[in-house]
Design brief:
The strands form 2 sheets. The chain has an 8-stranded mixed β-sheet, sandwiched between helices. Strands 3, 4, 5, 6, 7 and 8 form a 6-stranded antiparallel β-sheet that branches. About 35% of the residues lie in helices and about 20% in strands. It is globular, with a radius of gyration of 23 Å. The longest helix has 22 residues. It has about 425 residues and is of the alpha/beta class. Bound molecules: zinc ion. The site of zinc ion has 6 residues, from helix 11.
Length: about 425
């Protein structure tokens, strides 16, 4: 029977022993009977996403789990642009942007009073602008954030940030970071774009209304983190695969879109936090499995608790993740027409003691009726290290899953 893979990813899951938990890791300390059941149903191991001892970001960690490597990483700008639903083309320059308030030539507030409402209208007023032969795409993101894309021939991402990173300073003129004509041209055009942004935004009726209401106008754009979209083959094309991703977080959705995965999300009910609706997530994952071979089901909360340095909070997040795994297990007997392989992974460790990502390996499982069973019956960093999958890189893990889908060509004859 045809195999399909459901890959569950707990963001930032891996951790270190915490004093507050009697020197157990949050995963060891959590009640997680469903995750343990999955571990006993297959093979366990530990995984270094890129290489041993190298921390990775959520963006790169997910790119690796979706079939790419560090040399493919285009920078934060392009992944955020994909996350906001912009479909980048090779050569496009993507930048992270802020709506800001400028007064008398100085940045008075880098976040325009943390503007929340109306950024869609403001972004629409900037989207589609043309400077020389370059087209500007502009899309609002959460709160004061946005993404800008420059599309045209001969552009370069080797340009400096316009964001002065501090209030009371002027917007920084964009400079080329190397001597190439492309960087010089991009810096010149981007400067002109930012001036046009100020002209358009300061006359926008929404900003007049904001000022009348005593709010800071969002009358300028600050850019940073330019990245150029490389020529990347989509994972779904490379492997002739139908893949989908169920997630709420835009970085994860960005990496998934970049790989050509179909997106299943529900901003009303899925939050990227502890209160996310796990019933809805599992419902979407089951729906996606009907016509996709590879489905990713992501949960953000463990990473947030790691960044907060909150071991008990991380235990609670893991127990939510376990509840989600329980709902997946309930659904498996109802799935017909294919054999489900269930995989557990994480995009990196976020140890509570460090409050930041680390290079500690993460626990992995591949489970199913036709998967070799090892002796491991608990899902955590310690037991995983004794399992049949041993220790592998993120790329090896992805390739291993792909081979169960029978999309990896045989080498030799
Ligand atoms: Zn993180």
């Amino acid at each position: 029977m045809k195999n399909k893979v459901l890959l569950m990813i707990a963001d930032g899951l891996g951790d270190r022993p915490c004093e507050e938990l009697g020197w157990k890791t949050p995963l060891e300390a959590a009640r997680k009977e469903n995750l343990d059941r999955i571990a006993s149903w297959g093979s366990s191991g530990i995984m270094d996403l890129w290489q041993c001892g190298t921390p990775v970001g959520t963006d790169l960690g997910h790119m690796i789990l979706f079939g790419y490597g560090l040399p493919d990483y285009p920078g934060r700008g392009p992944i955020e642009a994909f996350g906001e639903g912009l479909e980048l083309q090779p050569g496009d320059i993507a930048l992270r942007a802020n709506f800001a308030t400028c007064r008398d030539g100085l940045v008075a507030d880098r976040r325009a009073g943390r503007i929340r409402q109306g950024t869609r209208e403001l972004a629409a007023a900037l989207d589609g602008m043309q400077v020389e032969d370059v087209q500007v795409l502009f899309k609002e993101a959460t709160e004061h954030r946005a993404v800008m894309v420059l599309r045209g021939p001969g552009l370069s991402s080797a340009v400096t940030d316009a964001d002065p990173k501090k209030e009371g300073l002027p917007i920084r003129p964009v400079r080329p970071r190397d001597g190439s004509p492309e960087a010089e041209r991009t810096a010149r055009i981007l400067d002109r774009v930012l001036v046009r942004c100020q002209e358009i935004l300061s006359q926008h009726p929404l900003n007049r209304k904001r000022e009348a209401a005593g709010l800071l106008p969002a009358n300028a754009i600050l850019t940073r983190g330019a990245g150029q979209m490389p020529k990347l083959e989509k994972t779904v094309e490379k492997y002739h695969l139908k893949a989908a991703c169920v997630a709420a977080e835009s970085t994860v959705l960005g990496a998934a879109r970049l790989a050509g995965f179909d997106i299943y999300t529900d901003p009303e009910r899925m939050t990227g936090n502890l209160d996310t609706d796990i019933d809805r997530k599992v419902e979407l994952a089951v729906k996606a499995l009907a016509d996709h071979d590879f489905v990713v089901l992501h949960m953000k909360a463990p990473d947030l608790m790691g960044h907060d340095g909150d071991p008990r909070g991380k235990v609670r997040a893991i127990e939510r993740y376990d509840a989600m795994a329980g709902k997946v297990l309930e659904e498996i007997p109802k799935l017909t027409g294919f054999n489900l392989i269930l995989a557990l992974a994480a995009d990196h460790s976020t140890p509570c003691e460090r409050r930041e990502h680390s290079g500690d390996p993460v626990p992995i499982v591949v489970a199913g009726k036709n998967i070799r069973k090892d002796q491991v019956t608990e899902y955590d960093e310690i037991h995983g290290a004794q399992g049949g999958l041993n220790r592998m890189t993120g790329h090896m893990f992805f390739q291993f899953l792909m081979d169960y889908l029978e999309v990896v060509p045989k080498e030799g004859n």
